[in-house]
Write a structure and sequence with these properties.
This protein is α+β, with helices and mostly antiparallel strands. The protein folds into three domains: about 90 residues, 3-Layer(aba) Sandwich (Rossmann fold); about 60 residues, Dna Ligase, domain 1; about 230 residues, 2-Layer Sandwich (D-amino Acid Aminotransferase, Chain A, domain 1), CATH 3.30.470. Helix content is about 30%, strand content about 25%. It contains 13 helices and 23 strands. The strands form six sheets. It has a five-stranded parallel sheet with strand order 3-2-1-4-5. α5 crosses α6. The two termini are about 40 Å apart.
């Protein structure tokens, strides 16, 4: 079977790594990266060039395409491939609006009684500023949120604590257009204190097949300080999502999500990812994403015991009912190594030294390229390491042991990935 994975990050490397053991598969990636080129044939076609990807899939006689990033989904790649009779994993353009348009997603949640923070959708700077000020005045936590409604690749959410911050953020997004069309419409949101988690699941519109709960670390620096990034590390399973929270999210989020799809005539096949916050022991949905998380995927898939290919095919066929996912015992923890300057401007072309031998860990490439069997930096999030262990502390130790042996000029990483989970397990009297 000839399988194409669209994308070139750590998430796509993790997907391909999980597909590689399947019998009789030939793997392709567009555009891929340096590490992916060791297990798949890479071709430099950007993920948003739908016509070229379609032509490539036809010419290479691709049997299955799996979409990694959100942009091609929002642009309608699934619709284009299905129109040509090509098998593709991911939601269509109409369904992908749940990520591509945060305003639409929040209204969907409200219509179907999915617990989420109070919000207002602003179409112009004046109403955005007025509404955000109102949220700030009423907040017992002296904070509110402003989010770009369009795709901002993990960098469109702002926690604001003063009128000046509100005015500057609205000015940047709506007048200066620092995020382009993503900021033309804004979601003004009530601030809720709490801890966040990622709930990722397969769905064929009839059945939800939940993955292990995970926790991402979005800020650049330790202790959740610094600017937002695409994600600096993740681990699974996340003890924050205990049995009670899991039961509530199944009933109040995913079942209502499926019911809402049916009522609105939306066909949804692929990944649904609910970004939640647990506030006062109540889960609230902050956002829906329509694809695997990055870097959550690098922590989840190494623990999956079921055949990923079979699950993807069953999702497309609409035959997930009765399927159970099986997971390895223990934990996986992923730490991202980023280039100096990320998420702003950063230099490329720095040589990367990678250890040849290591144990209980997997290295996933992201912003890398390979020249003459040597790897060089080619992106902001350069490479990541997933450590595996019977305990979360052991998984962390194994991840950092390898991460510290990877060298490139300007390497930056957080040192506290997994610490919240370890603390929570210790407090509960469980082996961390």
């Amino acid at each position: 079977m000839r399988i194409l994975v669209i994308g070139g990050g750590g998430r796509e490397h993790a997907i391909l790594h999980s597909l590689a053991p399947a019998p009789k598969v030939e793997l392709f990636a567009c555009p891929g990266n340096g590490g992916i080129s060791q297990i798949a044939q890479c071709f430099p076609i950007p993920p948003d060039d739908i016509n070229s990807l379609l032509k490539f899939a036809r010419e290479k006689k691709i049997d299955l395409t799996i979409v990694g990033p959100e942009l091609p989904l929002a642009l309608g790649i699934v619709d284009a491939f299905e129109k040509e009779g090509l098998l593709i994993f991911g939601p269509n353009k109409n369904a992908a609006r749940l990520e591509a348009d945060k305003g639409f997603a929040r209204e969907f949640m409200r219509r179907h009684n999915i617990p989420s923070p109070d919000f207002f959708i602003a179409q112009d700077p004046e109403s955005a500023i007025e509404c955000a000020r109102d949220f700030l005045r009423k907040s017992p936590y002296s904070a509110c949120l402003i989010k770009a409604s369009g795709l901002a690749f993990g960098k469109g959410a702002f926690v604001l604590k003063s009128f000046n911050e509100i005015e500057k953020t609205v000015d940047d997004l709506m007048r200066k257009k620092v995020l382009g069309p993503a900021g033309e419409k804004l979601v003004i949101e009530e601030y809720l204190p709490g801890e966040e988690a990622s709930l990722i699941a397969f769905t064929d519109s009839e059945t939800i097949l939940s993955c292990l709960p995970s926790q991402d670390h979005k800020r650049l620096y330790d202790n959740d300080e610094g600017p937002n990034t695409g994600g600096m590390g993740a681990y699974a399973p996340a003890p924050l999502v205990n049995e009670e929270i899991r039961k509530r999210t199944d009933e109040e989020v995913f079942l209502r999500f499926l019911k809402g799809l049916k009522e609105e005539g939306i066909i949804y096949k692929g990944i649904i990812y609910a970004g939640i916050i647990v506030s006062n022991n109540q889960p609230y949905v902050l956002e829906f994403n329509c694809r695997f998380g990055d870097p959550e995927t690098q922590a989840i898939l190494p623990l999956l015991r079921r055949d990923l290919l079979e699950i993807c095919l069953r999702t497309i066929e609409g035959s997930l009912k009765g399927v159970k996912l099986a997971w390895e015992e223990g934990y996986a923890l992923n730490v991202v190594l980023a280039a100096k300057g990320y998420p702003g401007n950063y230099e490329k072309g720095k040589m990367i030294k990678i250890p040849e031998e290591y144990e209980n860990a997997i290295i996933f490439h992201a912003g890398t390229e390979r020249r003459d069997n040597q790897f060089f930096t080619a992106g902001g999030r350069v490479i990541s390491v997933t450590g595996l262990g019977k305990t979360l502390a052991e998984a962390k130790k194994n991840a950092y042991k390898v991460a510290d042996k990877i060298e490139f000029e300007g390497k930056h990483l957080r040192r506290d990935i997994g610490d919240k989970g370890i603390k929570r397990l210790n407090e509960a009297g469980k082996m961390a």
